[in-house]
Amino acid sequence: MSTSLEPAVPTALRRGEPGFRPVAIGLFFAGFTTFALLYATQPLLPALVDAYGITPGEASLSVSVSTAAVAVGIIPASALSERWGRRPVMLGSLVAAVVLGLAAAVAPGFGLLLVLRGLEGLALAGLPAVGMAYLADEIDGRHLGGAMGLYVAGNSVGGFGGRVVVSALADLTGSWRWALGGIALLSAACLVAFALVLPASRRFRPAPVGVGALLREVGAHLRDPVMRRLLAVGLLVMGVFVCAYNYVTFLLLGPPFRLPPLVVGFVFVLYAVGTATSTRAGRLADRVGARPVLIGAAGLAAVGAVAMLTPFVGVVVGGLVLLTVGFFAAHPVASAWVGRRAEHGRAVASGLYLGAFYVGSSVGGTLGGVAYGLAGWPATVGFIGVLLALTVVVVWPLRSP
């Protein structure tokens, strides 16, 4: 008779169990900090245009370099988490990102600002994919959609809360530097909360990944046609979202609206709808399937984009609400589907999804600026419409998990 010396793996957590809430809340703080830091310069794009005499497309590079760096760093960070553990990688990433965020606030020139923003994005690469993998490890698959939705809700709160703080500080102090420094300090407070709340992994088992093994994992996921389509969904919907929020500020500051900068800054409060939407969309997908939720989300965002072509500020804001709801419905559903689909190498699969996600942010934000420079806001909305149509084409052949 032989006995195994391997410890028993704890059962996955289900909603309502004692360990479920600390996991969800801890990842909520991680999501908040990630989006607050990553997109901190988005509401400052008009100020950067004025300060450096650059075009809106060039100013948008302060966002694009960060998201591109996240895309580059996600797979290596995912591999490190397989060796060192999920929580240590996430914690180290947040510490580095906060320090770099403070440094960016005092950068003397635009070139150095871009370098520091790129390094900040590289540091933040340790959060998104590893957080998704942590949830996939710890949470029962039947409850993963709701938990992933709460994680993405943290992204939405970081998105609107961070941008409102940045906008308010910039308006009150007259300095984009004080605005960047303030959001970095707020993120430091969230880092402390994350470290105190998030428990150590219960079900994670180290599995060192060499370069060859990592490439084989990447290849295996990319050979899966369903996984390729899910990666495309992440790329397309994030391109839509970043493109809309990058350039709607220019629309509202200019004619015919000419709204005050502080009022325009509060447009990012619309991210709040994502807090409720992401969790509910995840639970809805758990009940009715992911495919119909993704198609419905794309359709809703398209209606919102068309509404933003009107000359009425209330209709423009309402359209932005619909587009925001569509994004925050699609992202958690697609990311949870990736977690379910990946029977092995979950951190790598999550890394691939989020790599595509942040490539979409960089490419969508930059190309949207090109469209804006060529033909103004209507061209940007047309570009958004093309991305949403492609999303439906990609999702249509899939079967819900």
UniProtKB/TrEMBL annotation:
Record's bilayer topology term: Multi-pass membrane protein
Localization in the cell: Cell membrane
Alphabetic keyword roster: Cell membrane, Membrane, Transmembrane, Transmembrane helix, Transport
Listed transmembrane segments: 20-39, 59-77, 89-108, 176-198, 230-253, 259-276, 288-309, 315-339, 351-375, 381-398
Principal localisation: membrane
Domain Major facilitator superfamily (MFS) profile: 19-401
Pfam families: MFS_1
Origin superkingdom: Bacteria
Matching InterPro entries: MFS, MFS_dom, MFS_trans_sf, Sugar_transporter_CS
Family to which the UniProt record says this protein belongs: Belongs to the major facilitator superfamily.
Protein name per the record: MFS transporter
Natural source organism: Actinomycetospora straminea
Lineage: Bacteria, Bacillati, Actinomycetota, Actinomycetes, Pseudonocardiales
